[in-house]
Every structure is written in structure tokens, then in C-alpha cells.
């Protein structure tokens, strides 16, 4: 049986990232205990890195594990949406803004040469 215990947290402020959407990156040190075949309990530690982001939809800060993210999305060039917001709806609204700029209608039959 593995017991998960959060012992202490290290905060590393990354000053290289833009303060717009990528807020900070920090590492959390977790303590685990496992029992060996002889019944002796061994303690071991694992570091997990988290990214603090600002939601592009509601502007609230949220945290995601770095391991759960695509590395190329770790930039301010991408939109980041928290779990409380609807990411699909947010993406549709971004498309709508572009269509308003280019006065395009929603039509899949538009010839690509006309774009
Ligand atoms: Zn949000």
C-alpha cells in the first residue's frame, strides 16, 4: 500500500516566462511509503512540476501538472482554458471573432481560392 503524503512544497519563480498567461512554474516534493517483502517500510520522494496558468476565458489562475501538458503548449502563443470553462465554446468564439474581421459566413462550400 502506497501512502501519499505531501510533505513540503518548493516554489521556484520562473522569471523568464511572460507574466500574461504563464504565471509560474513550481516543483512539489511528494513523500511516498512502500512496504517491502519483509514488511519494512521504505520512504521515497518524487518531484512533480506544476504550471500556474491564467485562463483566457474567465481570467482566473489555475494549476496543471506539467507532465499532463504538451510541451509546445507551454507558451503564451496558445490559449489555455481552465476546467470550469467550456473550452469548445471558447474556441468557437475565437473563430467567430476572425469571421467578423474578414466578414466571412459559416459555409464549408466556399471555394478555397476565394479565401
Ligand atoms: Zn476559466
How would you characterize this protein structure?
It is a single chain. By secondary structure, the chain is mainly β. The chain has one domain (3-108). 14% of the residues lie in helices and 36% in strands. The chain contains 1 helix and 4 strands. The protein has one helix spanning 87-102, and strands at 3-10, 22-35, 41-54, 61-65. A 4-stranded antiparallel sheet has the order 1-2-3-4, with no helix packed on it. Strand 2 and strand 3 form a beta hairpin. It is elongated, with a radius of gyration of 22 Å. The chain starts with a strand and ends in a 13-residue tail after the last helix. It binds zinc ion (ZN). The site of zinc ion (ZN) has 8 residues, from loops.
Structure at a glance:
With about 120 residues, this protein is mostly beta strands. The protein is about 15% helix and about 35% strand.
Q: How many beta-strand runs?
A: 4
What's the rounded overall pLDDT mean?
A: 80
Low-confidence stretches are 2-19
Sequence of strands across the biggest β-sheet: 1-2-3-4
Helix content: 10-25%
The tally of helices reads: 1
The coarse overall form would be elongated
User: Which radius of gyration do the C-alpha atoms yield?
Assistant: 22 Å
Order of helices and strands: EEEEH
- β-sheet strand percentage: 35-45%
The hetero molecules present are: zinc ion
Oligomeric description of these chains: single chain
* Domains, number: 1
Amino acid at each position: 500500500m502506497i501512502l501519499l503524503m505531501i510533505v513540503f512544497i518548493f516554489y521556484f519563480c520562473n522569471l523568464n516566462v511572460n507574466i500574461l498567461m504563464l504565471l509560474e512554474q513550481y516543483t512539489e516534493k511528494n513523500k511516498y511509503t512502500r512496504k517491502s517483502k519483509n514488511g519494512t517500510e521504505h520512504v521515497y520522494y518524487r518531484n512533480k512540476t506544476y504550471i500556474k496558468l491564467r485562463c483566457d476565458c474567465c481570467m482566473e489562475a489555475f494549476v496543471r501538472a506539467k507532465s499532463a501538458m504538451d510541451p509546445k503548449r507551454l507558451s503564451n502563443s496558445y490559449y489555455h482554458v481552465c476546467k470550469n470553462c467550456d473550452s469548445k465554446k471558447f474556441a468557437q468564439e475565437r473563430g467567430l471573432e476572425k469571421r467578423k474581421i474578414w466578414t466571412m459566413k459559416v459555409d464549408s462550400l466556399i471555394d478555397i481560392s476565394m479565401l
